[in-house]
Amino acid sequence: RPIDYMAIWDNKIYYNYTSTSSETSVVLIDGLEKEFINKLYTSYVNYFDLAGDDYGTAYSDSYAYGGSGRFEGIINGWLLLQGEGGYYVRKIDGEESYNVGFYDAVPEVSVDDEAIYVVSRNSLNIRTFDNDLRVNTISQNEEGVFNSDQIINKAFSDAVKDNIYYNITSVYEDEDWIYYMSLDSIINRVSTDYKVNIPIVSNVQSFVGIHDGWIYYINGYNLDYEYTYDLFRVKVDGTDVEKVNDNYYSNGAKIVGDWFYGADFDKIHKMKLDGTEEVVLYDGQSQYTIFTDEWIYFQPNNNYLYRVNFDGSKLEQVSTYRLQGLGYMKENDGWIYYRITSSYEGNEDGLYRIKGDGLRTDKLIGKDFSGGFAIYEDWIYYTKDSWIHKMRLNGEDDTKIYENDTENISVTEVTDTNIVFYSYYTHEDPLRYPRCYKIDIDGTNKKEILDYYDVYGRETP
């Protein structure tokens, strides 16, 4: 049989070949028996020592249809194999094996006592032995270089330059760099002169903040594509990625001083930024959480609105009614503005506000409210029947700003000069990718900022 691959490790030669066999099965179709011949492939990794005294099989696997189970090399006592679930490593002298992911070419792999390191194209994937931890750090690019892998990030750096932060979340700035998270779940930094855009770390669910030279973020998923929402930190230059805590931070997080505050699956807590000195502020599940300057507002599974202060000494129920169908919350000047998306238990669709202490509730607009909203100075900007309106914070002086008859749109952000919104689709093209636009504050001069097809369709601008 032809040998597919050969490698040497510990004075032994390891070689890979594939054998085929077939079996016949009989299937009853329309009352008639029909025979089918099924091919079965078996991949072997055999070995023999150079003296010819020791030989055997280190690994074998059977599969149908071919195309998997290839032997790609030996790394420090581990077999590198490609199977139906991607590339994985398997201990030569045992059953221990770990998946290291899918790649379009054979990756460079190294293994030490702490982790498995996989390099493919411009990314480093780190996978530890005790869990399915996945960390992707992206290699740095030289000044002014935007190659084919970076053209998408350039679109976002241009948006940062344009002071438009729609879905470019948690923007931080120092003397030389602007740090931001883009739609492709990557934290980047762009120089303040906008000539350099460097990706720092990928597989990011949320960008929590920067403190003392470290970027803190919640990661996305593991190698089994299960969401993990662990807390990580990485140096601002992309080095020294560290896992800080493995709580399931799916409901919000914030850095205040030297403390990290997070809402995980079953509690709201705080801890030092190195992961020590944990203090539980609320022992229970929170479905929606926002962090203001003095309070953490959250909705537990009983659907009332609560708040707890940052030292945990005060826990208060804010609403006397259930916020069933709560879709979004935002704090402004002591008020919590929120959207209700279902009519249930006396609730009605619309935009509301409640005083932070719960003493007053106002309904601002009912079912005509059709999308996102943004608050700027004394005004709320929102979409109504696919048009953009503004009204006072108390719901008065409702004014139409921008008329739109062709697109389903939603306001996302307002600056001193612009209103930012995105369109889901047009009536003529319901399958079109969303697009992000800006208009002047008076509703004129519409300009496209970003077409999502550039990101998800991988078209280059």
Describe the structure.
The radius of gyration is 28 Å and the shape is elongated. 3% of the residues lie in helices and 55% in strands. It is mostly beta strands. The two termini are 51 Å apart. The strands form 9 sheets. Strands 9-10-11-12-16-15-14-13 form an 8-stranded antiparallel β-sheet. Strands 1-2-3-4 form a 4-stranded antiparallel β-sheet, with no helix packed on it. Mean pLDDT is 79; it is low at 140-153, 163-167 and 453-461.
Main features:
461 residues; mainly beta; 8-stranded antiparallel sheet
Please give the structural blueprint:
Blueprint: E1 5-9, E2 12-29, E3 32-49, E4 55-64, E5 70-75, E6 78-83, E7 86-91, E8 97-101, E9 108-111, E10 115-120, E11 123-128, E12 135-138, H1 151-161, E13 169-173, E14 177-181, E15 187-191, E16 197-202, E17 204-211, E18 214-219, E19 231-235, E20 242-245, E21 253-256, E22 259-263, E23 267-272, E24 279-283, E25 286-291, E26 295-300, E27 306-309, E28 315-317, E29 326-332, E30 335-340, E31 350-355, E32 361-365, E33 369-376, E34 379-384, E35 387-392, E36 399-402, E37 407-414, E38 418-426, E39 435-440, E40 447-451, H2 453-456
Antiparallel strand pairs: 1-2, 2-3, 3-4, 5-6, 6-7, 7-8, 9-10, 10-11, 11-12, 12-16, 13-14, 14-15, 15-16, 17-18, 18-19, 19-20, 21-22, 22-23, 23-24, 25-26, 26-27, 27-28, 29-30, 30-31, 31-32, 33-34, 34-35, 35-36, 37-38, 38-39, 39-40
